[in-house]
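Subject: Protein record for review, amino acid sequence with backbone structure tokens
Category: Structural biology, sequence-to-fold work with a learned token vocabulary.
Format: Residues in single-letter code; tokens as whole numbers, each standing for a residue.
Body of memo: The sequence and its backbone structure tokens, given next.
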Amino acid sequence: MVGNLKDSVKFDDKGLIPVVTQDYKTKEVLMVAYMNEEAFDKTLETGKVTYYSRSRGKLWIKGETSGHFQLVKSIKLDCDGDTLLIEAQQIDAACHTGNKTCFFRTLTDGEWTETAPEAEEEISARILQEVYDVIVDRTVHPKEGSYTNYLFTKGLDKILKKVGEEAAEVIIAAKNKSREEIRYEISDLMYHLMVLMVERGVTLEDIYGELKGRR
């Protein structure tokens, strides 16, 4: 462990410390798990939240198999030094059930009820955010064979060229009056626009704010 952090973090008699992980934007609690010293060090080293599985007796990087990584934004220690609070950028769902958070059941009138499914507009916005987050992650953790990383490597001129090409494809699709073709080409254009946004430091919140002001 780095520096004098060992003196501050109080692991229990089994060498573990509970970790509460929340979405860094919404502050919604995503999950609660445990870390040992090695998992803590790995989290600091990689920037991806790594836990210790008590049932399997080994480390597990959240999202290692699903791709639903948790990218560390901040790590906080409580007043007693025996619980960690991690604020993270969650890629896709945090829960293995597919729910955004592991806490999707609420005690209501003596019974556990599951949270109602998200509204369609919330799901749509989340999908855009998920794609945007993956693009951001590629800038921090390049992936071999990634088309996104290829675009970033080629630079701004290449990205702009692709945006122009995809815009032209949308125009052609619209002229052809094929709904399926239009849908496909607009999706391509939106992806390349988000690559451009990340490259230029523009967020989805920036765009939402601009559009909201035009209503």
The beta strands are 17-23, 29-35, 50-53, 58-61, 70-77, 84-90, 105-108, 111-114. The chain has a mean pLDDT of 90. The helical segments are 5-8, 37-46, 120-140, 147-154, 156-176, 179-200, 204-212.
